[in-house]
Amino acid sequence: MQIKTSAIVALAAVLSLTGCETMTETQRNTAIGVGVGALAGAGVAKATGGKAGKGALIGAAVGGVGTYIWSATMERQRQELEAATRGTGVTVSRTSDNQLKLAIPSDISFDSNSAYIKSQFRPVLNSFVTSLKRNPNTHVIIIGHTDSTGGAHVNDPLSLNRANATRDYIFNQGVRGPRIQTEGRGAREPVASNDSNWGRSKNRRVEIFVAQPQ
Question: How far apart are CA 210 and CA 76, in angstroms?
Answer without folding.
Answer: 13
